[in-house]
Amino acid sequence: MANSTAKNGCPAPFFQDTLFTQGGFVEGRLCSVVTPELTCCLPCPMTDWAYPDSFQTVGKSAQWISVISTVCCVFLLLSWAALPVDKTFRHYLSISLTAAVTLMSLGFVIPLASRPDQCFDAITPNSMQTSSVCAASGSFLIAGGWAGVMWVFLRALSLHLQICWQVVVGRNFMWFSQAVGWGIPILGVILAVVLSGVSFRFGSTCHINHKNSLADLWVPLLVFSGFTIIIQFATFGYCIKVYLASLADNSASTEGSGLPSYTNSIRTMTPKQAYRRVRRVIELQWRGIAIVLIIVTDVIFFSIVFVFQDNTVEAVKHDQTIAADWITCLFLSGGKKEPCLSKASALVVNMPTVGAVLCLLAINGIWLLLLLGRWSMVTGWRDIFLNLSGRNKREFVSVDARLDDLKKDTRSYEMLSRDSGKTMDESVTQFVVTPLSPTAKLPLRSPSSNRDSTASNNDGRRTPDYFGHTARYHVPERSFSSPRAPQQTVTWDARDMYARQELPAQNDSYVNPLAMNKI
């Protein structure tokens, strides 16, 4: 450090800015003007001097959590793509939100895999022009944040329309959601990268620069997040209103079905009917409601923390007196940061808050798996793997086993095989006559002759042929399974059944009263 001090003209650990080129993100340097001819800059990266060494551990932990979140999101996306609907209950709102969280997680995973150098030189951080990893991680982080906010906004809007306004969202809303949910994030990423850019400013992940960041990123994100919260709480307020109204409703007409009658409009439902309908919707959508609240809270928390950190650093650049105590402590300690960490805490966000923000952003994929995933997805993948391994193929059955089953009942039935479409007689392997079998020397005979010759067969090796002949099927006389011409003409004469019986002639005039009405 003594040699560096002699060369630079700046006390340790600072460096003179004139000794370095203008490459990298020059605006990211933290420098202080000592004299009009001498400007001293803090070594890069700044977080190594403002935070303890455990800060790197916090950043690595958040990145590994992001890896787990990415795996969870990929599992969900593959399940929705490969498994049937009855296993996953997929929906375009859930699929798009999971894709957005995947993009956000990749913003933390890419630096972990590539391990980029945060600094262009001793005092200058890298930017997206000097580091492709920085450009990729920053773009993915901004795109994931924008897409996550837009899709939770659309999810909250869809739920609000269904519960509060009884609007059935259909195909038009789906196309509108796809256009807004992906169009605005693409536009937001372009504006943020072109007007502000990204650089290594807060750990190993690139973040947006201070220039124009409020106008092209933070304010629009907070506006849509605010709309989402307003819509969500308006929906909650309506649900509470419906619940309180149902408590005061004592009409007997609502004690039956929870659905409105056919004669009434859905807007003229009684309070209890409206409460039952709202309760059913919430029971189906509570997972989506929880996801909306979690992601919106994470985005707002991250935005506030990062904007506060960004504004503090910019204030130090323009007013060196703010960090005078910290800079003096570093000079007097000979470049040792440990005695000066307490003075630096007033200039940066404390490490527990930073760790909480990073972990909350990284854990979103795990929340999606817990709330949107289903156990039926696991069973669906299990069935696919079992089919691929061949364990679900038709079990092999030997011919002898089939013949034993047939011998249990000697009646002839023609049945179709489930697999081959053949009859049972065709699916059984034909009996092969070998030279060792004595039946090969016997001529074919009628069934009666076969029965007579059974007793005379002394070798005892011949098996009666129960299945060699097919019994002829005789159609019953009164069978109506197929149309056929009538065999005889049936006629009916009413006089045979209902004609009055002719009584024999009688000479006397006596009439039997019991037989006068006899038919």
From TrEMBL:
<dbReference type="InterPro" id="IPR000832">
    <property type="entry name" value="GPCR_2_secretin-like"/>
</dbReference>
<protein>
    <recommendedName>
        <fullName>G-protein coupled receptors family 2 profile 2 domain-containing protein</fullName>
    </recommendedName>
</protein>
<feature type="region of interest" description="Disordered">
    <location>
        <begin position="439"/>
        <end position="468"/>
    </location>
</feature>
<feature type="transmembrane region" description="Helical">
    <location>
        <begin position="351"/>
        <end position="372"/>
    </location>
</feature>
<feature type="compositionally biased region" description="Polar residues">
    <location>
        <begin position="446"/>
        <end position="458"/>
    </location>
</feature>
<feature type="transmembrane region" description="Helical">
    <location>
        <begin position="175"/>
        <end position="198"/>
    </location>
</feature>
<feature type="transmembrane region" description="Helical">
    <location>
        <begin position="64"/>
        <end position="85"/>
    </location>
</feature>
<dbReference type="GO" id="GO:0007166">
    <property type="term" value="P:cell surface receptor signaling pathway"/>
</dbReference>
<keyword id="KW-0472">Membrane</keyword>
<dbReference type="GO" id="GO:0004930">
    <property type="term" value="F:G protein-coupled receptor activity"/>
</dbReference>
<keyword id="KW-0812">Transmembrane</keyword>
<dbReference type="InterPro" id="IPR053247">
    <property type="entry name" value="GPCR_GPR1/git3-like"/>
</dbReference>
<dbReference type="GO" id="GO:0016020">
    <property type="term" value="C:membrane"/>
</dbReference>
<keyword id="KW-1133">Transmembrane helix</keyword>
<dbReference type="InterPro" id="IPR017981">
    <property type="entry name" value="GPCR_2-like_7TM"/>
</dbReference>
<feature type="transmembrane region" description="Helical">
    <location>
        <begin position="92"/>
        <end position="113"/>
    </location>
</feature>
<feature type="transmembrane region" description="Helical">
    <location>
        <begin position="218"/>
        <end position="240"/>
    </location>
</feature>
<feature type="transmembrane region" description="Helical">
    <location>
        <begin position="286"/>
        <end position="308"/>
    </location>
</feature>
<feature type="transmembrane region" description="Helical">
    <location>
        <begin position="133"/>
        <end position="154"/>
    </location>
</feature>
<dbReference type="Pfam" id="PF00002">
    <property type="entry name" value="7tm_2"/>
</dbReference>
<feature type="domain" description="G-protein coupled receptors family 2 profile 2">
    <location>
        <begin position="55"/>
        <end position="219"/>
    </location>
</feature>
